[in-house]
Amino acid sequence: MMITLRQLLDHAAEHDYGVPAFNINNMEQGLAIMRAAERCNAPVILQASRGARNYAGDIMLQHMIKALAKMYPTIPLCMHQDHGNSEQTCKSALDYDFTSVMMDGSLAADGKTPADYAYNVRITKTVAEMAHKRGASIEGELGVLGSLETGMGDQEDGHGAEGVLSQDQLLTDPDEAVSFVKETKVDALAIAMGTSHGAYKFSRKPDGDILAMHVIEAIHRKLPNTHLVMHGSSSVPQELQDIFNEFGGEMPQTYGVPIEEIERGIQSGVRKVNIDTDCRLAMTGIIRKIAKHHASEFDLRKFLVPATKAMEDLCAERFMRFGCEGRADKIKPLSLEKMASRYLSGSLDPAFAV
Question: What pTM was estimated for this model as a whole?
Fold first, then answer.
């Protein structure tokens, strides 16, 4: 059953848990996530980047999501646009039945150049008004994803800041976050605190110098009822790196966001946690292993069935660690029409600073 992001995150906030948001590109990834959700009785956020939409095609994604919702009718399923770069990107996602969009106004429409605060507010507010009229949810972003260790932005799927960033850009200002949420009326706020896309987030196990969890805590104190989002939060588990490299991969030693730090974030208002790299590693490691041990195999299913199971197991672990287990059947989705009515009446405005 389809649901908006706002409804999922409201329930997560009420019951003190977080929801992993898994990026998808194809059927196998969708099945892996939904099978894990059924195992755990957990709600689901599936999200597609612009790169994923180009890869799979909007019509294919639209019908795939409807099929997954029909196959798993007891699982609340939010379909989310990840890192929308413009009003048109977000509008087209809504036209293809996405129930939530992210307008990433931290960057200009090219998806590479850091934007100023005024632009971010203006474009995010415009998209929020458009989404809310349809009953859909919106996530905004304040601050730019990038490495506190190197000072560099990050790039994935053609999206991410280029070049060196300042500390002011790499860390979301808590006071500015209060103003941003109030002006834009976003349903969820993605913040910058040292995480980045891809596998190569940190050169060592992150500490407070390069993973600024205190920023989350400071923002949560000022915006206790605003749903916070951690982007670039794959943990890049050592065992997945080892499998990948054992069977022919060449991944240098790297470190992701430790799950215990994500759990710390959930205690301070993080309700949505974006995960992509972990899923890619889980699948490609198994594909490499099968190719190594069965060099004559050419039946694609012999690769994809076990790879899908590996991703399913990873997703199930994330559902359980983030507190999602047993939540799905407690959530009763509202229609987009009812959500639109609530937005227009003002009853769903975010709560601001106390």
Answer: 0.96
Of residues 16, 82, 97, 278, which has the active-site annotation? 82
What's the number of domains the chain is made of? 1
Residue 169 confidence (pLDDT): 87
User: What parts of the chain have a pLDDT lower than 50?
Assistant: 352-354
Residue 353 lies in a domain: no
Q: What is the pLDDT of residues 29-54, one digit of tens each?
A: 999 999 999 999 999 999 999 999 99
pLDDT of residue 52: 97
In a domain, 292, yes or no: yes
Which CATH number does the domain housing residue 177 bear? 3.20.20.70
What domain range is 223 assigned to? Answer: 5-331
349 in any annotated domain: no
User: Mean pLDDT for the chain?
Assistant: 95
Q: Are 349 and 185 in contact (CB under 8 A)?
A: yes
**Whole-angstrom distance, CA of residue 190 vs CA of residue 10:** 16
Tell me if residue 278 is catalytic: no
